[in-house]
Each structure stands twice: as C-alpha cells, then as structure tokens.
Amino acid sequence: MPVNRRDFLLLRAGQPAVLSCERLFMRYIDSQADDSTARLFDQLAADLRRVTEVRIDDPSWRSREDFNRHLTEVLGAFAARGGIVTAG
Q: What are the boundaries of each domain within the chain?
C-alpha cells in the first residue's frame, strides 16, 4: 500500500503543518497488516524534513504505547533538527 502524506499531514502555506494522529494511527494499523510500519514512519520523517513546524492534532490517539513510541522517535528527530512541535 503506498503511503500518501496527505492522508495524515496537512500542509498550508505560511502555517505549521498539521499532523492528524487519528489518520496516522489508522495508517499505522494498516501498516502492521502488510509489514510496512518502518516505511510509514520513514515517509513521515521525510515529509517533516520539508517543514519547520508541525502541530499535533488529535493527540489522544497517542495512548497506544507502540504507536506513540514510533511517533515520538520521529518527532524527536524533527525537534533535534530545530523543528517546532506544538499540540493542537
């Protein structure tokens, strides 16, 4: 299944990118079925390299530990490069 960032990362000119945890979580569940989880989060990391700020939407979806671990790793690398992460 191809990963399409528009499914979970909304880009608007002049505004922070918006990351929908709900949409990303649904893709995460699908990725477990076809063993593409690493590719999913690699693609998210690549997409985040194109922005300087991301706003996390629907953070309650991060309650599942395995999903949150993957997302925290990607967001941590983004922040380490100087990216700004805010809660929505």
A: 5-10+21-87
